[in-house]
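Subject: complex prediction, re-run

Hi both,

The earlier run crashed halfway through, so I resubmitted it with identical inputs.
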Amino acid sequence: MAKQYDVLFRLLLLGDSGVGKTCLLCRFTDNEFHPSHISTIGVDFKMKTLEIDGIKVRIQIWDTAGQERYQTITKQYYRRAQGIFLVYDITSERSFQHIMKWASDVDEYAPDKVQKILVGNKSDEEQKRQVATAQGNKLAKAYGMDFFETSAFTNHNITESFTRLAELVLQANKKDLDVLRVSINDKLNLAALEEEEGVCDSSSDAQKTCWC
Amino acid sequence: REKLGNGTGSPAQPQLRINMPSTAKERVPSVDPYGFERSADFDYNTYEELMSEYLAILTRRSIKWSKMLQGRSRVERNLKVKRYVRKGVPNEHRALIWLAASGSQEQMEKNAGYYQSLLQAQHDPKLVEAIRTDLHRTFPDNVQFQKTANPCLQKTLYNVLVAYGHHNKAVGYCQGMNFIAGYLIIITKDEEKSFWLMEALIGRILPDYYTPAMLGLKTDQEVLGELVKVKVPAVWQAMTQHNVMWTLVVSRWFICLFIDILPVETVLRIWDCLFYEGSKILFRVALTLIHHNQDLILQARNLPDICDRFKQITKGAFVEDCHTFMQKIFKEPGSLSKATITKLREACRAKIMAEES
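This time it finished cleanly. Structure:
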């Protein structure tokens, strides 16, 4: 089997309930927008491959339930992430205020090296806007993050923001690029890589480990 | 087409026969009896085949239930009723049996006016906002919950959730409860009954799944892991090998009580037992799904693959055929005593609490 990608990253979508995390993800991976979909329960993920500077980057994007209490489950995923989207809704001041809380949780539970970007979603709903673009910019600057206003509905800045975070993750790991597969991928990723490379022939035997 | 459906009994007229639907997709309504729109990939042929058999079962069960109930609104708890419940409660008796079996009927009668008083009291704006965020995200594929429906069940849903959140302040509102309340409303068609059934489920039948710490949920996920370790060890090994946390693949099973995971009819059959027998049934269902599909799960070669397969095993003929599936859940996982569950719950809870402190 031909090798389908060079590196594998895990990105995580965080932000209040209803800011549009799932919609951002569906737009990015499937180019679809569903005005009504069900609330995300627990954690789910989707995958997509991008090409950045000639490197095929496979990204696994984890989507989480936004309600605060679900963090007791979702924070287990923070430490597995290399990049994090902090998402708020430009029509909800409250969701913007909460970004600080999300950011401090990320500091606490995610790896030091984790890359973050700030996303203000629903930019198409200008008439309902409660958070000015300047406010988003200012907060992003304060945290040293890149900032995008997006709309999953109109497909505004979706590819740009996902690609940007993937680039940042790639850059953050650039020094190790030669040994990238080993350094940023734990056994789990390595197993995934080898699987697509056709290293594993049989997995029906559960005793057999994939990477040895 | 719709006129034909009503024309049962009378001999078909020649001009009607010309319009006789020729495919299953034309014969089966595009919205199910509960108001859910069938998805684009719905398998009409398999459904029609299954239903032709299941309708006969339903009719037989319905007659037996009517004979047993003889118009009474009380049911005793005994082996016969338990057997009947496992074989499925006919939809016309479902609300009654759920209310009776769970003790909700009694609670509702003892606390007349309580539900209304909760609605009239002042409401916590934070709770209200959390609930509102999910109203249009609860069953958007159900015609009764769509904004254009009349009456629109979103309002009913709002009332039940707000009332429950103020009744049980330790829980308030947890995402997932919207789906549970939604199902109760669809079945009982009554706000107050839905509220009391909600109280039975969350307050008594289920462990603390929905409290802010979600300790009961985390516990039951681990309990399932322990049961799989014993009953389907190869799958447990695969999960360990690929570093897949149980929460990733089963949290929705527990939180949503299989809503939007398994087919509607199958979920209702599970809930029949849930109200009568308790939360142990959830493990039976989960274990059956895993045990029955272990070969498929074991073919997975990485974490995403495992996740996909755990989604795959909740679809298809095995789970659509709810009557056979319900027979399987009592056989396939083997014995599962209350004592085992209690012991495992205690051990897992202690372990989680130790890890978190």
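Chain A touches chain B through 33 residues (CB under 8 Å).

- K.
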